[in-house]
Amino acid sequence: VQVVESGGGLVQAGGSLRLSCTASGLTFNQYTMAWFRQAPGKEREFVASHVHKDGSTYYVDSVKGRFTISRDNVKNTVYLQMNSLKPEDTAVYYCNAQRTDRPTSYYWGQGTQVTVSS
Q1: In whole angstroms, what is the distance from residue 117 CA to residue 48 CA?
Q2: Residues 43 and 99 sit within 8 Å (Cβ to Cβ)
Q3: What angle is formed at CA 59 by the lines to CA 53 and CA 60, rounded to 5 degrees?
Q4: Phi-psi sector, 74: left (phi>0), alpha (psi -120 to 50), beta
Q5: Residue of 81, 91, 97, 85 lying closest to 111 (CA atoms)
Q6: How many Cα atoms occupy the beta-carbon half-sphere of 32 within 13 Å?
C-alpha cells in the first residue's frame, strides 16, 4: 500500500493551495480518507475526513468554511482545497487512509509541507 501526498508549498496569507493524496494497493472505496497536520512543536491534529460509505465530511472547527475535502474514487485520490490560508495553518499535512469497517487498519502518507507567510 502506498499513500502519497502532493501540492504543498509556500503561500501568502489569504492565498489558496490544493493538496492531493493518491492511494494505491488498497480498495479505495473501503477507506475513509482524512487529512491531519502537525505544526512544529505540536501534536498531530485532525483536519478533515471524507467517509465514502455515505459521503459524510468532517472538519476541525478552525478550518470550517475555508477548507474543503473531496475525493475521486476513479483516481483513488482525495483532495484538500485550502482557501483563505492563515499563518497558523503552517504545518506538515498528512494523508490518512483508514478502513471504514476495520479502524485498526490504516495507512499514512509521508507528509507535505504547507507554509503560510504573513
Answers
A1: 22
A2: no
A3: 145
A4: alpha
A5: 91
A6: 22
Tell me which residue of 106, 108, 107 sits closest to 93, measured CA to CA.
Answer: 108
Q: How far apart, in whole angstroms, are the C-alpha atoms of residue 52 and residue 87?
A: 31
- Is 87's pLDDT higher than 90? yes
Residue 79 pLDDT > 90, yes or no?
yes
CA 29/CA 100 separation, integer angstroms: 9
Provide the 8-state DSSP code for 54: T
What digits encode the pLDDT tens for the residues 2-61?
A: 999 999 999 999 999 999 999 999 999 999 999 999 999 999 999 999 998 889 999 999
Ramachandran angles phi, psi of 11, nearest 5°: -145, 150
Residue with cell 498528512: 94
Give the residue among 97, 88, 81 at the shortest CA–CA distance from 116: 88
Question: What three-state secondary structure class fits 80?
Answer: strand
Position 99 confidence tier, pLDDT thresholds 50, 70, 90: very high
The residue count for the chain:
118
